[in-house]
């Protein structure tokens, strides 16, 4: 598992994030405080407090391309 901190303060950033993660074949979760949602669910993401940094948990060892794409959200 790999963890990355990101910020999704604007709706367009949420849409861009979901577009990137929706096609990966492994599980990705977003955490905010005690809440955890599927990172591929746009409705789940909007249920989180987006004013705070979020933690992305990626459950794959072969995710170098995804980690590179997520740099835009740090």
Description:
- The chain has 3 helices and 4 strands, in the order βαββαβα.
- The chain is α+β, with helices and mostly antiparallel strands.
- The chain has one domain (2-73): 2-Layer Sandwich (Histidine-containing Protein, Chain: A).
- Strands 1-4-2-3 form a 4-stranded antiparallel β-sheet, with no helix packed on it.
- A hairpin with a 2-residue loop joins β2 and β3 (35-38).
Number of domains: 1
Strand order, main sheet: write it out: 1-4-2-3
How many alpha or pi helices? Answer: 3
Question: What's the mean pLDDT score?
Answer: 94
What is the molecular shape? Answer: globular
The helix/strand order is EHEEHEH
CATH topology: Histidine-containing Protein, Chain: A
Show unreliable segments: none
Largest sheet features = 4 strands, antiparallel
CATH class: Alpha Beta
CATH architecture: 2-Layer Sandwich
Q: Tell me the Rg in angstroms.
A: 11 Å
N/C terminus separation: 18 Å
Name the helicity range: 25-40%
**In total, how many beta strands?**
4
Classified in CATH, the superfamily is HPr-like
Portion in strands: 25-35%
